[in-house]
What does this fold into?
Amino acid sequence: MNPTSASVAVSALPGGAIPAQAARTGKVRIIDAVKYYGAAGTGVLAVDHCTFEVPAGEITVVVGPSGCGKTTLLNAIAGFHSLSSGSIYLDDEMLCGPGKLKAEPGPDRIVVFQNGALFPWKTNIENITFGPMMQGRLTRAEAYEKARDMMADAGLRGIENNYPGEISSGVRRRVEIVRALMNDPKILLLDEPYRALDSLTKSVMHEALLEIFYKNRVTIFFITHDLEEAIFLGHRVVIMTTRPCRPKKILDIDIPHPRDYSVLTTKRFREFMDETAAAVHEEATKAFAAGEKER
Amino acid sequence: MNAIKGFVLKTISFVTGEDFWRGIVAIIVFLLFWETGSRSQSWFGVAFPWVSQVPAPTAVLQEMYRLIQDPSFWHSAYLSTLRVTEGFLAAMVIGIPLGLAMAVSKTFYGISFPVFEVLRPIPPLAWVPAAIIFWPTQELSIAFVTFLGAFFTIVINVIGGAQAIDVRYFQAARSMGSSTWDIFRRIILPGTLPSIVVGATVGIGITWAVVVAAEMISGGGSAGSVGGAAGGGLGFFIWNSYVGGSYTQIVAGMISIGMAGYLSSAILRKIGEWMTPWLAEG
It folds into this structure.
């Protein structure tokens, strides 16, 4: 709606250290995406002719009832599942589309999973250095140095040699985001990462995520069923219909960044909530009536 | 240094704890009952049912004291340990790769699992006669039967463990640029390790159960007998004590096997803990 207000807010950041090229990559375009599970005709339609855009260097939040097919979309971008038809572009490169319905997974698109997927048998720093060392981009020493810096930046000093099982779930989620960022991804794909957290931890995690975002300016594709979370975090909020999922409403949230929790009590925030709550509630009711289960 | 301190502190709090003393008292009461029961004929003139047939713990203790100075007893223990080790190691060396291959390859699983499932319910001891026919020496037959005891447990655990690895770990590793080999080495292997440890710990227990019975049935093997009767492993030692009517020796033999089984499980558990540090508590 108002892109200038966002960019003004960003350049007003102290230090203003925003990697210029990072802000311009990571645009994802989803064009007419369709996903059937099972045979066409008899199968279940999960994604129904979905078209929308994830702008580069911004946070796009997809909101929809549980089981609506939004994770299917994320899996298609990540390259874990194929589309039935349609195409997805990352910047100007086709990830999947006619002739190649399943994208290759790659370090330019890293997923942060719903319940976390840190390797329990690796220490936190081994988890964080996993990507660059697998890709052979950094030597062990370089990877460890970069990891220590990034962990310190994210307030994760002192847990380098702990195992993920030894730290709280909130801290685990932060470690996982740092692990994702170590790959210098063009886009981060977050699949309800804070779902299992209590609301206090959640609010801390939201601010921490924004802080990481302001530092790295990586494009974020964020899935949730929590409307408040969506409006608080997102530059753009895509409200999905219940299954089969299709954008019902796309909103550009013109509350300036950087944001903090005081935003929640502002008039503009309430207006967005009021404007969207009815739409979300309507879809949730439909999903409930259809007996959609958590997946 | 801290580890030692921690260990000492833990030991002290355990020894002074309620559970420890409750356990000690329970064992003492058990031994008292046993002693009284065994000696009931001479002490009260009435033989208690069942227990009066069993030699008293003090007599068994005396017998054990004699046995630990007897090289032929140690030779028996050595033979059984050797067979357990051989069978167990063979089961690990063959079972772990086999289980992993079955978990990783659908085709291989489809071919091998039905055969595996047909053979698995056959109790290892049912193999003894066949093993004696198949294998050139008695020694190999016994080792083979002990191998079977651990093998199926290990394979089942490895398959289960590898198949239970969360698919998100594979997806995350793939995204971060892992090759198929990386995924095998860095995801599947460590992800299966806890199950391998469980399989090994359970497996070695079964191995001890099997070796004793196999030794009894096959007559102690052909590995020569030092000092006559007690030459062919602990199973044969017990059987021989029974034939020779030395009941204290039977019980002493039983206890030594119990201790050997416990010890080997404890060692494996320690190795397992060392290999899977992420499972340690706090």
Observations:
- The interface with chain B takes residues 78-80, 105-107, 109-111, 113, 115, 117, 119-122, 130-131, 134-135, 163-166, 183 of chain A (CB under 8 Å).
- Strands of chain A lie at 28-37, 44-54, 59-63, 85-90, 93-96, 109-112, 187-191, 219-224, 236-240, 247-252.
